[in-house]
Amino acid sequence: MFLIFFSFIFASAISPFAYLLFFSISGPLSFIRFYHRLLEIILLAVVFLFRKHLGIYHWADIGFKRPVFRPLLYGLGWAIGIVGFSFVIEPEILGKIIRFPHATGSIEDSLKIFSKAAAVAIIEEVMMRGILLGVFMRSIGELPALVASAGVFSLSHFLNNKPQNYPDFHPTLGSGFQVLLEMFQPVLRLEWISIQGLILFLLGILLGVAYINGKNIWQPIGIHGGIVFLVHSQSWIEPERLLSDSKESVILAVFSAILWIFYRKYYGKSKGKLNVFFL
User: Which residues of the chain carry a pLDDT beneath 50?
Assistant: First the structure.
């Protein structure tokens, strides 16, 4: 946790200078987006520098190991099942036509959505499951680690608040800290105690279960990326809809339980462990 705190402070301190340097090379860009990408890079760099202290010696310790395609395809299958089952129990969503800005349904749009889904899935799964969940499991045990990492995963999605009336293209010396304070406002206002927070928590449980059972990060990447792609690839689906309906929490809870029991049963027979692990 100290490394995470240090990364936030360091990113806030250097972001205005790094932004001005990058701005002179690339031209106008959003300081808010730049800050978030810089923070992600610093977090990954800090983890790399202190990887041995965190128990990470090889890529396999994060979950990057063989097989690749089979767990990835399994993950995509779970994503299709979750999103598809959502439409089955709530078919009226198909009648709510919502057009996104500049959405044309072209191949170029699909590639952009695919790239976004892949980037989001890989970055978040490496940080949340491969690193954070792995460190928690080595520190406090499997079940507490699963719950704690899912909680952090849920909270992290509320750290995206944009400062009001913010001069986005003219950052000052304290702009990074201003963004940092605004990022934590939704958390301090307890906005995570909501249906959206619960669904994100249960999604974190589902992704954590997929990671723990196989110690392979490709399946949670497939689930995460598949959900992001499917939800954003159709112009008639509102991206935040899956995070605003209480039915989704039931869906994710059921899928988490099925995934956990199925894998525990399978691995229990093959490795002599308990057939079912009761949550």
Answer: 95, 97-103, 236-239, 268-279
207 contacts 125 by C-beta, under 8 angstroms: yes
What residues contact residue 243 under an 8 Å CB cut-off, 6+ apart?
Answer: 195, 196, 199, 200
Q: Is the distance from CB of 263 to CB of 214 less than 8 angstroms? A: yes
Q: How far apart are CA 222 and CA 117, in angstroms?
A: 10
Q: Which long-range contacts (CB under 8 A, 24 or more apart) does 135-144 make?
A: 135/54, 135/55, 137/212, 138/55, 142/212, 143/279
Q: Which amino acid is at 173?
A: L
CA distances from 194 to 35, 185, 187, 201 (A): 27, 15, 11, 10
Closest CA to 163 of 187, 176, 179: 179
Q: Which of 204, 83, 213, 84 is nearest to 152 (CA)?
A: 204
C-beta atoms surrounding 36 within 10 Å = 17
- Cα distance between residue 199 and residue 74, in whole Å: 21
Task: Report yes or no: 71 and 216 within 8 Å, Cβ to Cβ.
Answer: yes
Nearest to 131 by CA among 74, 213, 224, 46: 46
CB half-sphere exposure, 32, CA atoms < 13 A: 14
Return the HEC string of 236-264. Answer: CCCHHHHHCCHHHHHHHHHHHHHHHHHHH
pTM (predicted TM-score): 0.78
- What is the SS3 assignment for 47? helix
How does pLDDT run across 39-65, given as a tens digit for each residue? 888 988 888 888 888 888 888 889 898
Q: In angstroms, rounded to a whole number, what is the distance separating the alpha carbons of residues 116 and 229? A: 8
